[in-house]
Amino acid sequence: MENIVVETMINYNEYLEKLVVGSKNIYTELRNSEVNKAVTQIVDFSEGVNWMISVNEKLGNLGHVNELNIDQIIEFLNEINNGLEVKDYLLVADIFEHEVVPFFESCSTYNIQ
Length: 113
Description:
The protein is mainly alpha-helical. 79% of the residues lie in helices and 0% in strands. The protein contains four helices and no strands. The longest helix has 29 residues, at 3-31. The radius of gyration is 15 Å and the shape is elongated. The model has no long low-confidence stretch (mean pLDDT 96).
């Protein structure tokens, strides 16, 4: 396997772990009324998730398939956005705690050989 592909897989696997930790920070901050901090992290989360989707698709095109439910991620992003629009921060916290975190905890990592 090419070094760039292996490095990308490693970065993907590491970022998957960071998404879980970051999501936990987001819902904690929202519940502690630290909305500005949480919103900044939600923007980072969204950008990171988009990066993961892109990497997953590109690696899949190279024959390195790793299942990622992109439709579910898009649904999360829409739910989060809707909650933020109406300033229902407890709903957004619940989405992160009860939907986003378990989803990313159950995602597969790339098997690097």
